[in-house]
Amino acid sequence: MTTFKTSFSRHAAIKAAMAFGVGLGLMSPATAADPVKVGLMLPYSGTYAALGEAITNGFNLAVEESGGKLGGRDIATVKLDDESDPGKAVQNANKMIKGENVDLLVGTVHSGVAMGMVRAVKDSGTLMIIPNAGAGPATGQLCSENVFRTSFTNWQPAYPMGDVAYDKGYRNVVTMTWKYGAGEEAVAGFKEGFTKRGGKIVQEIYVPFPNVEFQANLTEIASLKPDAVFVFFAGGGAVKFVKDYAAAGLKDSVPLLGSGFLTDGTLQAQGADAEGILTTLHYADGLDDPKDKAFRAAYKAKFGKEADIYAVQGYDTAQLFRAGLDAVGGDLTRKDDLIKAMEGATIDSPRGDFTISAAHNPVQDIYLREVRDGQNVVVGIAAKALNDPATGCKMAGN
Amino acid sequence: MDFTFFLIQALNGVQYGLLLFLIASGLTLIFGIMHVINLAHGAFYMVGAYLVWSLTGVFDSFVVAILAGIVCAAALGWVIERFLVIHLYNRDHLDQVLLTYGLILVLNEVQRMMFGSDVHGVAVPSMVAASIPLTDTLSYPVYRLVLAGVCLALAFAMYWIIQRTRLGMWIRAGAANREMTASLGIDIRRLNALVFAAGTALAAFAGMIAAPLSSVYPGMGDNVIIISFVVVVIGGIGSVKGAFLGALAIGLTDTFGRVLLPEMSSVMVYALMAAVLLWKPNGLFARA
To answer: Which CATH architecture describes the domain A5-152+289-363?
Structure first.
């Protein structure tokens, strides 16, 4: 829903006017004294609003920790609510690219919107960093020099769960997700990992997105009696699924496995029904890492909230951009060197160090987590330095 | 599918249908009877869910929170009718769409400012938190059965009030001919405010009672608005009986569609609507 857009664009316009003088900004060439303009195109309303906020907070925190500057340049941000509406994605991205003339476009959460943005920057050549959306093609078939990602591909956290499930002795598994890109890619990742070891997918259940009436499918699962169930759900749907699963009595008889989003940012609402669920993700609670502890403390002090994976991804988006800007001394005209530096960067992330793959996706550890006392406690590493196969990406030689 | 699971799925279908009736019941009043296109119906549903979530924190009792929530929601509906909707009765449907769409934006933003963007859960009241085992792997939550009972009672009460009481007669008369009803000495203004407030309270009540099942999150109302209109349209505009049967038909179609034709499940409900409208263009029980 459009709730925020007008106020944001007005705000952005005022900001632009203050920085450059209206109209002048477009005409005068950027000098080192001008701030670097970063466009945050994220969901600031609707179901994903909390994610957009967390990413923004994380980004701002990293900028602030570098003294408000990256690569010696001031950073000016412009926000735009993408409304999680793929229909408006290209138009909104162009508003940022052509209207606001941003140097870096950051976005977004919804995979469909992110793909629209990827298409828009492919034409303009604008540098873009994806802080969440896991759509495979963004760093696969449609990968491109100027598009980076600091989050994950949908395949990435799901694939190692195949091994985990097999090692737990599960052989027959039912998968269930919404019928949309992210869900299908996650299930495909799990399936690849699980069947490679010899496991069998008894049934793949798809429900229309974003429908949250699961009772019929839970009854079906009960009649199939699999060894375990693997699901991909997020946000309100994840809360409802976990509660319904427990209320249907399945929690005690058929273990529930998931991509980490099932229990991230949702545990308070899921309560006891989530206890014991195993998930895999590139982040976890209780990581024994000083960087993570410092990050969480700083985040909580500044925003009065616990940091989550989305905040980490936003934080690392600024860190990755800083790595590029530092290398060129803030000179955005040296774009090739800037991209090269970002490609070669090792990011000191709260999730643990990660590097950037040839397809511009993080090469990162995937943690196995268990819900204990309302926290996603790390219980092991499900895959070390996991690289997405980046199917179809020419930069990765595929 | 063996017979036991067929029966359980039928139960799922009926239970989902009853819940749909509850969600759409307020719209039956406001859109079906008052002929006001109320796109904010889903937003009222969300208001209810957030009300019960915040009020359970205050009162520590689900039932008391619901009662208090209903009062708040009815007051909200009354205010909206008095100050906004009242100007629209004699105007174009498009004006109503514009106003009620605006209400969605306002209510969503107020929600965001007051409660933030996090997902919240409301605990199922402990008295009905148990589950009844049906097979060795599957149990049925008692709360869903209670919900079904409440929906049935509400359906009966609505039908009785509208078809069998003097108040219901006034409401139907007011919907049929506003001027004539007013000239017979019935305070049509107060009647409209009452119906609109009742419709708002019903939408909010649906959100409240569904909150323990569905969780509470921003934009949750946007998902129920379309299905609510489908229920009212299938049932026939203005017919409580039609909305009830329409909701049950949708519940069963959706449930069995998911199990038997999973690839088609997202269009089954709309296919049903198209079929009903081809057969009866005004819905199942349209009043002429």
So the answer is: 3-Layer(aba) Sandwich (3.40)
